[in-house]
Design a protein that fits this description.
alpha+beta; Glutathione S-transferase Yfyf (Class Pi), Chain A, domain 2; Glutaredoxin; 2 domains; 4-stranded mixed beta sheet; homodimer; 214 residues; 8 helices
Chain lengths: 214, 214
Amino acid sequence: MSTANAIKLYAAATPNGIKIPILLELLGLKYDYQKINFSTNEQKEDWYLKLNPNGRIPTLVDSSTGVTIGQTAAILQYLTDTYDKDHKFSYKFGTKEYYKQLEYLIFSVAEQGPITGQLGHFTFAAPEKIPYAINRYSTDVKRILGVFELILSRNKEGLFLVGNHISIVDISVLGWANNLARVNIDVNEFSLFSKWLESIKAIPEVQKGLTALN
Amino acid sequence: MSTANAIKLYAAATPNGIKIPILLELLGLKYDYQKINFSTNEQKEDWYLKLNPNGRIPTLVDSSTGVTIGQTAAILQYLTDTYDKDHKFSYKFGTKEYYKQLEYLIFSVAEQGPITGQLGHFTFAAPEKIPYAINRYSTDVKRILGVFELILSRNKEGLFLVGNHISIVDISVLGWANNLARVNIDVNEFSLFSKWLESIKAIPEVQKGLTALN
């Protein structure tokens, strides 16, 4: 009889969803995956809202600590706080690098994610073409990529958003940077950012994580 | 001769800006305030981008720790990590309450802030009236307020988003909940949320912080 893993991930293969298996692969943690079916609005069912009042994916339940947690960036932070004691994929609590990591993680979730998401909506999903909205969000996605380009240009320690190794910031930013051609954004206009993107995607655990929820 | 305070805040009186003086007042911390002039695009000047590559407010510089940090939620977390050792306005690192605080803080910055911001843009700033966009963001702001209503209804410890006292989550959510009538949202449709809002705003330090940047 198979034994359940301590970690259970409720998710789907979205720009946010894929971030969690990428980190779980890097941390070498086994987990059970339950795909949430958007076509039946499963994420708004009562049983799921008990786990995640926002009714969105991903949610992680860790029976070894008793923690149930939603919101992608919070899950990334929780997992490294709990399982990255050697700080291979994060920076130590209270250090200057930790607060750079937190600042850029918040930037990723407060601006990169929502703005790229709105660009996707007005490019693909909206029932009418609204040039003003497409231009607004396309312009802002490019501005945001320019901020990442500036951050990378200032980091003399390596091609990472913070410090000399990959961290949850790189994973967070990757999720929304992986498919920008779909929204007519050419990442090659940002030379450091496009190099960074290729180097992060070349990591075997990242490759594995990127397709783990398909 | 007056001595500069250790903490310097670069900000302006916006829904994000006001969150920082509210917390600083609660923590009883003195600070110097430099208003950033949006009308001259001061937030995009080189000297400011050195402090904050995103070119947005607020930014906090703490000369007593050497930390310079941007992004509102990151600043709130930094200040309580550093100055709220008794956990009067935050929850202890690693506890279940800490991760609820983090989850809802991320929800506030990843959804409440950007979506309310977009509603404001399409209500006031956009050069053309686009009913589709106004309806889209108005509907989502109401959905988000419904999530806060659900969170409040589940908390049996008090009228707070987490636990039995005010925390950085309440401060974060307040910043964007304070002026919803301006975007034609009636918070009274959400009974617990509107009670919560009144009770948080009644705290003297919150009142002082709300107008500190004017």
